[in-house]
Amino acid sequence: MARRTPSLLRHLFRDAAGIVSPRSPRGRAEARRFVTYMPRPGDGAPRPVTLIPGDGIGPLVTGAVQQVMEAMHAPVYFETYEVHGDMTTVPAEVIESIRRNKVCLKGGLRTPVGGGVSSLNMQLRRELDLYASLVHCFNLQGLPTRHEKVDIVVIRENTEGEYSGLEHEVVPGVVESLKVITKFCSERIAKYAFEYAYLNNRKTVTAVHKANIMKLADGLFLESCREVAKKYPGIKYNEIIVDNCCMQLVSKPEQFDVMVTPNLYGNLVANTAAGIAGGTGVMPGGNVGQDHAVFEQGASAGNVGNEKIVEQKKANPVALLLSSAMMLRHLQFPSFADRLETAVKRVIAEGRYRTKDLGGSSTTQEVVDAVIAKLD
């Protein structure tokens, strides 16, 4: 059964409509702002979002998002469902909620290793046809990293490839695992990558592949990317073999802009890029299809944390907070997204409140309180 958090409808409608006192500090600041988004009538109505807290640190970081959303009176309210990685399937009522609401925010789901247990993350992506995974890896001011000027968007095909799950034991001791690549899925992920680049003023799209070895499978992926690239002459297109890509990422990551990849390569590349730019705890991401979107921590490595972090309540909420800013833009609430993103970046830049993975000792709640204090 879903649990709805307090909607604070009075504040939601008031903030969404931009009703503030001109004598308040916030009112004086907003009086100087230019109009950047012209809504249609009714666009300010609060939107329902399906919330899956998940496993491990999931409830901590999703709880952090809920607190910040309430503090900024964002026009969303949550329908919460308990889903855990050891379940055999995603409950039908959860799928129905996402179909109805169109948008979901989720914490990490623990995926059992081996044993033939299917990943609920993959079930969710296939059921809702969330064919594009997007992870944004970038430097944050105040967070020292080995490389500067990193700003990479990894767009990964999300439904096939090595993740097709078609495995069987031919004879005892011999397992056959099938990698499936289709022209349909390759073309639509390439089109999504070029559309993203075009709409976000990105200059280059790089296709990552291993067509020198998998000539038919990755060759089909490359052929599809090349065909789509012809329709976007204003965007530079190039290709790179996945092993060379990993070497170039760790030596000169600033050369990459938008990267489009088959399923497995995208997972590896996104986590590598995240580690280069500051760690998986600060990289936002989401999965999107034609009708639905699920937002979560961008890089999957360590997304459920460990028991010690959960016990000490020191999980890093930054990645999911930035993912929720992406969600707000997806819902066409750009002003709220900007306020949230700016507050998070101010806290990181100031450096007083950071969790252990960022070199500090703060708890999740201390970071949340700091972000709330920085909201305009």
Q: Please, could you describe this protein's structure?
A:
Belongs to the isocitrate and isopropylmalate dehydrogenases family. Residues 48-371 form the Isopropylmalate dehydrogenase-like domain. It is found in: Mitochondrion. This protein has 13 helices and 13 strands. It is of the alpha/beta class and 376 residues long. It has 2 domains: 44-132 and 283-375, Isopropylmalate Dehydrogenase, CATH 3.40.718; 146-277, Isopropylmalate Dehydrogenase, CATH 3.40.718.10. Helix 3 links the parallel strand 2 (47-52) and strand 3. Mean pLDDT is 89; it is low at 6-30.
Condensed summary:
By secondary structure, this protein is α/β, with parallel strands linked by helices. It is 40% helix and 20% strand.
How are the SSEs ordered, and which strands pair?
Elements: E1 3-4, H1 9-16, H2 25-31, E2 47-52, H3 58-71, E3 76-80, H4 92-101, E4 103-106, H5 120-127, E5 132-138, E6 151-157, E7 161-171, E8 174-180, H6 183-199, E9 204-209, H7 217-229, E10 236-241, H8 242-251, E11 258-261, H9 263-277, E12 284-288, E13 293-297, H10 307-312, H11 318-330, H12 334-350, H13 364-374
Parallel strand pairs: 2-3, 2-4, 4-13, 6-11, 9-10, 9-11
Antiparallel strand pairs: 1-3, 5-6, 5-12, 7-8, 12-13
